[in-house]
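TASK: fixed-backbone design
INPUT:
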């Protein structure tokens, strides 16, 4: 895995009520990732960018919503999100811009 590829794997942190709940209860962080990203790539990218140790990665594909444009049906694109479990005692603080 090249460093250039790893920089393109993580798109954004997923910030929502559910993401905050999961972070507090299960010590996981949720990221929106590239649609062709794999678990090893996500793990390497998080460790490279945030200087933390990753215990496990789970990936889910979020199906795009069906939308109606007048009388035509369309759909948004599917996207992937990754649940990243950090090793105990580690956390990523997005407010300060990196590892804490």
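OUTPUT:
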């Amino acid at each position: 895995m090249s460093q250039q590829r790893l920089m393109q794997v993580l798109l954004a942190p997923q910030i929502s009520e559910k993401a905050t709940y999961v972070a507090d209860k299960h010590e996981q962080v949720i990221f929106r990732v590239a649609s062709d990203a794999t678990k090893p790539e996500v793990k390497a990218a998080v460790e490279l960018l945030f200087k933390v140790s990753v215990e496990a990665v789970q990936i889910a594909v979020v199906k795009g919503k069906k939308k109606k444009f007048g009388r035509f049906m369309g759909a948004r694109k599917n996207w992937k999100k990754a649940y990243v479990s950090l090793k105990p005692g580690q956390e990523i603080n997005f407010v300060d811009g990196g590892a804490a």
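COMMENT: The CA atoms of residues 59 and 82 lie 4 Å apart.
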